[in-house]
Design a protein that fits this description.
With 125 residues, the protein is mostly helical. It folds into two domains: 15-50; 51-125, no CATH class. 73% of the residues lie in helices and 0% in strands. The chain has helices at 3-6, 17-40, 43-48, 62-69, 73-103, 107-124.
């Protein structure tokens, strides 16, 4: 019997495993890049990197805190007072630190420092 009859006929094009692996790797990379671009342009990215902003009032919306923790009216009053004290202390420390840093800078450096602080605030929102 001839060995040609026992061999499988070529039915289609064969892929080089290295080429197939490279294409697969490129597709995975492109899908990841596309997903990252979508996340960066959505509110998901902003929420992931959101820092508490004490100057805008409260770092945690107190009504949500009250609801999530199911606080009694007495607890809510005490916790709100504590948080207000903390936020006031935080604002005082920031203001004092900023003044102390600015006292060490030249006028040109103070302008740049203020610009850097503004940029940082924009990144947090």
């Amino acid at each position: 019997m001839s060995t040609e009859l026992l061999e499988r006929p070529e039915t289609g094009r064969r892929w080089d495993p290295r080429l197939a692996g490279g294409i697969l790797l490129a597709l995975v990379f492109l899908c990841g890049a596309a997903a990252g671009a979508v996340a960066m342009n959505s509110s998901v990215h902003a929420k992931m990197h959101q820092q508490p902003t004490f100057d805008s009032g409260k770092a945690i919306k107190f009504d949500r805190l009250q609801h999530e923790l199911n606080l009694t009216p007495a607890q809510a009053e005490q916790i709100q007072s504590i948080l207000n004290d903390m936020w006031q202390y935080y604002r005082t420390v920031l203001s004092d630190s900023k003044s102390r840093v600015e006292a060490q800078l030249t006028e040109e450096q103070r302008v740049k420092f203020e610009r850097l602080l503004q940029q940082q605030l924009l990144l947090q929102h």
